[in-house]
Amino acid sequence: MIGGQMSVHGLELDLKRYHVAVVIPAYCVADYVAQVIQAVPPYVRTIVVVDDASCDPTSEVVCALNDPRVVLVRHERNCGVGGAMKTGFREALKRGAQICVKIDGDGQMDPGLVARFCQPILLGEADFVKGNRFMAGGGAGAMPFIRKLGNMGLSFIVKVASGYWRVFDPTNGYFSIRRETLECLNWAWIADDYFFETSLLIALHALRTVVRDLPLQAKYAGEPSSLRPWRALGQFPGRLLKLSVRRIWYEYFQYDFGMVSLLLLIGCPLLMIGIGLGIWYWLQSIRSGIPATGGQVMLSALPILTSVQMLIQAMALDMTSGAVKSEFGMPVPEDASGVYS
Question: Is the pTM for the entire model greater than 0.85?
């Protein structure tokens, strides 16, 4: 990085020509937030810090910096990271931001990487760029083992729920997003608490948003993490199931109807019929003491086997449907317009 410019395939992109905003959700990070803000590169025009009802002098530390780029927004009550980010996005877009980059205020993310997160958006290669500590060159090696195991488990179930089968590390909070994508999001789908990043991915897939992972080195120096992986693994499945059903309904029944829709319409009832028949014949054999006949076993097994094949095929088609192109396909225009609502 030299003078706010970066070279991409021989093309010089002057980041100062674009309104890049950094949004920092801040909750009790008075010991770290000043260093984070001071490390934000000079080409970033706006830094929105959302003090989410901190019980320490986070706001006082931010005000003492006297950085003209900083906009401090205070919550009277704690709204969670998602609630803080919604407030921050709203403020950034009102000020004309064309790309918003989320950085946590606890010092675990390097603000010097903002340009790397903006690059795919400026080139029209992605609408949303997120960090991935598990990619080659990422920081998974330095991640505590328990946190690593929890993130791997969450990543798998989020793949199923979100439809982004090639995206990993879903709880990573370092990401960038273009203005147009923010304005199109259904914010009712996006959670206010620690489920924020996961629910955001699910909402993005409903828009067929192009998402790209970027290797990320995260720092772990004893800072407290708001995410408890094992607690999340216990609480996420129910919420993911609800959002998964919603995503599938919108994508394959309300917005479109294709082969996946047909496979689901036939496969799911067949699975229920097969399971129901199997339970019925099993209960009958217990009551009568007479084992189920071969015909009865096949009558219950055949619908199950057929439905499993259909559902696997539907899953395979869902995986390939993620290979879409950006609807925008060009660098962000210099004169962004529109108001976040």
Answer: no
